[in-house]
C-alpha cells in the first residue's frame, strides 16, 4: 500500500487507495445497413467530446462478434444525432 517515488532527485512517500470507477454509458442505437455503410440515428446527447463519441461508435461496430469489421471512416453530426460509418469491405 505504501510506496516511495523518486522525482527529479527528490523522494516522496505515497499511499495507494482503491477507488470506484463510474459505470460506462449505455444507450440504444438505431441502424440502417447499405453496402459498406451504416447509418446510425437517435444517438443520445452525451456529455463527452465528439471525438470520444466517434471512437465509441468505431469500437462498437468494429467488433466481429457484433457483425462488424475494419472501419474506414466515422462521420458524426452532434446536431442531428446521426452518424455514418463506412467499412473497408461489405461484411
From TrEMBL:
GO cellular component: cytoplasm
Chain ranges of the NID domain: 2-73
Signal peptide: none
InterPro entries per the UniProt record, alphabetical: Nmi/IFP35_dom, Nucleotide-bd_a/b_plait_sf
A matching Pfam family: NID
PANTHER family: INTERFERON-INDUCED PROTEIN 35/NMI N-MYC/STAT INTERACTING PROTEIN, N-MYC-INTERACTOR
The name this protein goes by in its record: NMI protein
Protein source organism: Nothocercus nigrocapillus
Amino acid at each position: 500500500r505504501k510506496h516511495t517515488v523518486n522525482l527529479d532527485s527528490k523522494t516522496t512517500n505515497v499511499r495507494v487507495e482503491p477507488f470506484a470507477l463510474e459505470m460506462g454509458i449505455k444507450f440504444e442505437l438505431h441502424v440502417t445497413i447499405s453496402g459498406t455503410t451504416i447509418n446510425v440515428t437517435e444517438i443520445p446527447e452525451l456529455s463527452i467530446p465528439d471525438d470520444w463519441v466517434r471512437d465509441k461508435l468505431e469500437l462498437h461496430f468494429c467488433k466481429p462478434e457484433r457483425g462488424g469489421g475494419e472501419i474506414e471512416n466515422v462521420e458524426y453530426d452532434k446536431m442531428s444525432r446521426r452518424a455514418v460509418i463506412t467499412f473497408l469491405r461489405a461484411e
